[in-house]
Amino acid sequence: MAADAGTGAVVLWVVLPYLSLAVFVLGHIWRYRYDKFGWTTRSSELYEKRLLRIGSPLFHFGILVVLIGHVIGLLIPDSWTGAAGITETQYHVVAVTLGTVAGVCTLGGIAILIYRRRTVGPVFSATTRNDKVMYVSLTLTIALGLAATVDANIVEGGYNYRETISPWFRSIFYVQPDPGLMSAAPVLYKLHVLSALVLFALWPFTRLVHMLTAPLGYLTRPYIVYRSRDPRLGNRPPRRGWERVG
């Protein structure tokens, strides 16, 4: 079907997705091999905690729900949910409600984190150009996703993306990309997808790599030996009647 689409559609919905996917995979391999020391969130918790306690949980809760919603909506065909007894109306109501709430939480959380990073001196000083590009790309992707959901499903009265965007997304992994499916999608959905492709291409080179890390090494790492600062364990002999334990 790709042959029936125009050159612009092929570039946007065939070439760009594969390019983004290649950079995402190869970029992480390169980063892991040559920049393990930089594979970190570069936590700024020591500089400021009050805003972080609000913004970070809000953002991470929202983004987790958004991620789960995307996995279900993009990877699970509507025929499967129909076979499970879930009607399209039921799916639509739940998806739009949870998606909107999660989107607001995510956008609110990242707004607090950006405000904190801009207004707290030490945190701002620790912010790199790489961080700024990442925050802009991430915020834009979240904002466009929320705007697309609200506009198409609340303002316009409903849009079933599982008939166009979801099959297109799966066709990428079937290696049978069908850019024609994206032609029928609303503009905001197209912008959301394009911004997500850019974000995934930037992902391996930002602090977002920590999302792919699980602290499994903590389960097998050796004990850390600490030296006691108890003055009684110095050169002075202990008082009679007391014996050192351990």
Distinctive features:
246 residues; mainly alpha; 9 helices; 0% strand; globular
Task: Draw up the topology in text.
Layout: H1 7-34, H2 50-75, H3 78-83, H4 88-119, H5 121-125, H6 129-155, H7 165-173, H8 180-183, H9 187-202
Task: Give structural notes.
This protein is mainly alpha-helical and 246 residues long. It has 9 helices and no strands. It is globular, with a radius of gyration of 24 Å. The N and C termini lie far apart (74 Å). 20% of the residues are buried. The mean pLDDT is 86.
In short, what is this structure?
This protein is an all-alpha fold and 246 residues long. The protein has helices at residues 7-34, 50-75, 78-83, 88-119, 121-125, 129-155, 165-173, 180-183, 187-202. The termini are far apart.
How many runs of DSSP E, i.e. beta strands?
Answer: 0
> What distance lies between the first and last C-alpha atoms, to the nearest angstrom?
74 Å
Structural class: mainly alpha
The low-confidence runs, each spanning 5 or more residues with pLDDT under 50, are: none
**What's the overall average pLDDT, rounded?**
86
| SS field, number of helical segments | 9
Strand percentage, roughly?
under 5%
